[in-house]
Write a structure and sequence with these properties.
With about 220 residues, the protein is α/β, with parallel strands linked by helices. It contains four helices and eleven strands.
Length: about 220
C-alpha cells in the first residue's frame, strides 16, 4: 500500500528531510507503508553528492543545503511541486537504473496529460522539453529546457528523495546556480509553456500516472 500525503504551505527543508528519513527507517523495520509526499519548499538550493561548488554562482541568494541524494545543484521553491517517493524496491525490483527510468516515465506521463512532450536525454538525468517556440541555437537546433529534476537515494533498497516538476516557479531563482551542472540549456515550467496548470491539476495527474507506472501488481522494469 502506498500512502499519499500533501503538505500545505512551505515545508522547511531540514525538518522535511528528517521526517522523510525517519519514515524510511520505519519502512525498513516493517512499521510503515510506502509513501508519496507532495509539498513545496521555500526558496533554497540543494547540493547533491556530485555537486561542484563552481556551479553555485550566487551562494548568498538563498539558503544552501547539503543533501545525500544523487545529482548536483538544484533549486526548490514556491510554484514547484516536489514529490518525495519512499518506495520499497525489495518488492519492486532491485534495479537503481530502471528505478530512475521509471521516475522519469512518471514525469513524462504526467506531462503528457497536459499535452506536453517530456523527453529523456542521454547523460542528462531529468526531463526535458524541446522549445520549438524559441529561436534556433547556434548549431541550428531548437533549444531544450529542463522542466523536471530527479534525485534519489537508497537505504537497504528503500528509496527517498524523488522528483520535482516546475508548475509556476520564479525561473529567475535558477540564476544562482548552474542547474545540475548544465549551463548550455535553460529551465521552464508548465505556465512558462503557456499552460494555465494549477498545483492541484498537477497532483491529480501525478496520482493517475503513478498508478500506471508503479502498479504494485507489476514490478519495476527489469534490466535485460
Amino acid at each position: 500500500m502506498t500512502d499519499w500525503i500533501t503538505s500545505q504551505g512551505f515545508a522547511p527543508y531540514p525538518e522535511t528531510i528528517a521526517q522523510m528519513e525517519s519514515h524510511v527507517n520505519e519502512m525498513i523495520d516493517g512499521k510503515a507503508d510506502e509513501r508519496i509526499w507532495l509539498l513545496e519548499h521555500p526558496p533554497l538550493y540543494t547540493a547533491g553528492t556530485s555537486s561542484d561548488i563552481n556551479d553555485l554562482t550566487d551562494p548568498n541568494r538563498f539558503p544552501v543545503y547539503e543533501t545525500k541524494r544523487g545529482g548536483q545543484y538544484t533549486y526548490h521553491g514556491p510554484g514547484q511541486r516536489v514529490a518525495y517517493a519512499m518506495l520499497d524496491l525489495n518488492k519492486r525490483g532491485r534495479d537503481l537504473r530502471k528505478f530512475v527510468w521509471n521516475l522519469e516515465e512518471w514525469v513524462i506521463q504526467t506531462l503528457a496529460e497536459f499535452n506536453v512532450r517530456g523527453e529523456r536525454r542521454e547523460g542528462r538525468v531529468g526531463v526535458w522539453v524541446v522549445r520549438t517556440d524559441k529561436p534556433l541555437t547556434a548549431l541550428g537546433n531548437p533549444p531544450e529546457d529542463k522542466i523536471a529534476a530527479i534525485g534519489v537515494r537508497l537505504r537497504k533498497w528503500h528509496s527517498f528523495h524523488g522528483i520535482c516538476i516546475n508548475v509556476e516557479p520564479d525561473l529567475s531563482h535558477y540564476d544562482g546556480i548552474i542547474p545540475c551542472g548544465i549551463a548550455e540549456h535553460g529551465v521552464t515550467s508548465l505556465v512558462d509553456l503557456g499552460l494555465p496548470v494549477t498545483m492541484d491539476d498537477l497532483d491529480v495527474a501525478l496520482k493517475h500516472s503513478f498508478d500506471k507506472v508503479f502498479d504494485e501488481k507489476t514490478p519495476l522494469l527489469q534490466s535485460d
